[in-house]
Amino acid sequence: MSVAHKPPRVAKANGIDICYEIFGEAGAEPLVLIMGLGGQMVQWDDAFCEQIAARGFRVIRFDNRDTGQSSKLSGGKSLTLWEMLKVRFLNIPPAAPYTLRDMARDTIALMDVLGIRSAHMVGASMGGMIAQEIAITFPERVRSLISIMSTTGDPDLPQPSNEAVSLLTEPQPKSREKFVARFKRNWKVLRAGRFPEDEALDRSRAERVFDRGINPAGVDRQIRAVLASGSRKERLAKVKAPTLVIHGTADPLVDPEAGQDTAASIPGAKLMIVPGMGHALPMAIWPEIIDAIDKHAHGASAKAA
């Protein structure tokens, strides 16, 4: 498959450096991919981006602040046990150097640099939370919203499995080989099933992430950003963008009920439940996911025309 591709570049946006990459023709409909907690833009696989671009989209992926080759910030140590207890039982948010709204502004500022007035927003996990925040705060910039394996942030929703929580709280290895081993183990848990095609690629994926630069302190800051931002449930009632919510039945990190809650909180939202899908987008389900993104985004544009 051959699609137009611009190599990674760095933009000055919202006061920080944001590393981004573009797939697809300049005149195609812009579609922004927003990655989750600690995830780099390359974790939207190249082939995944190419396949979406081949459907008539200009696909923009980027490193969130504190990941990959975007700016590294400061402050915000790992959450203490006391802070976690206050969040869990008293709904008291922790202090945070920035919030999801700041990360939403990063996305909007990058769009400004690229001359993109509005785009389809596709976010996975924390990226879905950021995409939701963009749809709430910057409605005129959103052609459609696709929230994948994400949540409204309602504290009453079911909590992650203990095994999934340990993936977030375990210290990140500093050596390349230990990082690779942990990456492979973590994604096997998150995929919640046997996906040989992905398992065969996990080493090369991990090495690419490690070589682009890991930032454990940045993950801590992003966790704080998620928790400090609280629930979007009530504010999501204001979202006017055509919305599709995608969630798997086997997600060990963000319970499927969170996807149902997201769809129920956004007027007119459609809910797509994917049997056997965990907290990942394995290659075996790409056709189903890409078809859904294509149909929803192009359908939203057709209605707006």
Protein described:
The chain is α/β, with parallel strands linked by helices. It has a single domain (5-161, 216-304), classed as Rossmann fold, CATH 3.40.50. Helices cover 42% and strands 17% of the residues. An eight-stranded mixed sheet has the order 1-2-4-3-5-6-7-8, sandwiched between helices. Strand 1 and strand 2 (16-23) form a beta hairpin. 45% of the residues are buried.
Secondary-structure map with pairings?
Blueprint lengths: L4 E9 L2 E8 L5 E6 L11 H8 L3 E6 L18 H10 L9 H15 L4 E6 L1 H12 L4 E7 L13 H8 L6 H16 L4 H17 L3 H14 L13 E6 L7 H10 L4 E5 L11 H19 L1
Parallel strand pairs: 3-4, 3-5, 5-6, 6-7, 7-8
Antiparallel strand pairs: 1-2, 2-4
Helix pairs in contact: 3-4, 6-7
- Read across the widest sheet, the strand sequence of neighbours is 1-2-4-3-5-6-7-8
Tally of alpha and pi helices: 10
Q: How many separate domains make up the residues? A: 1
CATH architecture: 3-Layer(aba) Sandwich
Uncertain spans, ≥5 residues at pLDDT below 50? none
Order of helices and strands: EEEHEHHEHEHHHHEHEH
CATH class: Alpha Beta
